[in-house]
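Reopening closed ticket. The problem is back. First fold of the pair:
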Amino acid sequence: MKTNIGLYLALLFGVFSLSTSAIFVRLANAPSAITAFFRLFFAALILLPFLLSSKQNKRQLLSLSKKQWTFGILSGLLLSAHYMLWFESLRHTSVASSTVIVTLQPLFSIAIGYVFLKERFHKLAIGGCVIAIMGCFMIGWGDFQISSQALFGDLLALLAASIISLYFFIGQAVRKELSAVPYSVISYLSSSAFLGCYAIIEGNPFTGYSGATWMAFGGLALISTVFGQFIFNWLLKWIPATVISMSILGETIGTCILAYFILNEAISLQQGIGIATIMSGLVLFFLSPPIHRNQ
């Protein structure tokens, strides 16, 4: 799929930055709702100066229609649900298993694109997707635990995958008329509001955490979200949501490598073969003819 090389480099940078998510979540010693809340709240605060210092961004924000506000808040709700489910899954199953399952989102994205947007993929793209997903399972298969707790975590990750696919398709629609910064600030702030309310209901404290946990919150906000997830929001104006979802399969590779260096989780031969398989599938997908949409 042909596009500007700069967009692909930005996509690659975003995927690598997003790969840090599972690591920071494991390092944060806090409830899932609190971790997700500070991730998105801090990310919104980081982007706020870019919103307020830009005349175009402020003009767009002041002229938002009810439909745009609705979609922005809905995307925040979906994003909060995604992070809550995924962060919680990481407390019930391993990093590899959870990350592998949550990166199955291309399957949901392809299904949504096929049914609602009439997107049609070349056989080479479908083959690349299947190969890359097989690589993900090669990485995580040995890490799947046969227990009710692990199964519960895996199901939470699967649900998180379906929800983030919807989030990207809403973003694709909104980004046709709205810049990335105001859209992301609305999404992140509304998402953190939902998460904050949930944390209050659950009785989770917002203070009293260690310095290492606060640093993990900051890493999630700046690296995983602003340098990762926000990049995807920005790219949605030029790259289809399905393609971005497919590229996120590369997150599994980055997470495995980072888990090796930071969490001392070894990379087995099977996982190494899985990494090579994912890369092969991604190459096939991105070298295939572009998406065709039936009218």
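Second fold of the pair, where the issue appears:
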Amino acid sequence: MPKTKQKKFYVVWLGHVPGVYLTWPEAKRQVDGYKGAKYKSFPSRAQAEAAYDGGFHRYMTAAVAANNKTSHLRQRPTSKRKSNAPTTPGILANSISVDAACSGNPGKMEYQGVTTASKKQLFHRAFPLGTNNIGEFLALVHALAFLKAQDKGDLPIYSDSQIAIGWVKKGKCKTTLKKSKKTESLYEYIEKGEAWLKENSITNPIYKWNTKAWGEIPADFGRK
């Protein structure tokens, strides 16, 4: 017997019309085009309503405190498995976050980098055809090059893609997307990215964003 998909409830703390929504399309309408929107999904209505009533800042404070507790207040990056990218006990506000979005996979793809604390956009690129993993990879490489150019080789970078972090550390975008006229410009960027990784050492800490504890990464495009 097929498993019933668990229903989710969506809190929009900051959006066109804040509130608790029963479906993602309803919630999405409230955050689309709203700069700095703050929202998250919850497994039960009670949790969603409690989080909404408490406000975004109280929820984030509690989430970070809970994460710190489970991490035993360790200050070094931690990882449950050696193969996983490290995360941090709490959110490092002085950092940047990257993310990608794809309309279909493959499909029209874009990526961006923002300041983690204020969601100020630092860079953005779009391609007519790509995949989410490629976008996540390029976003990370762009972030590394961007920070190196500004002499900020120690500023942390957050990504919510385990795959992209692995690709960057190996210096290779291991995509299976076929080369074509539509992907010509994309592959030029991939090759530039791989060349940059080969010629430069990575000094910025790259951390896995803890979506479960902190909600969507600040660079998220809001297409869940």
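Update: turned out to be a display glitch only; the data is intact. The first strand starts at residue 9 and ends at 14. The first helix runs from residue 24 to 31. Please close again.
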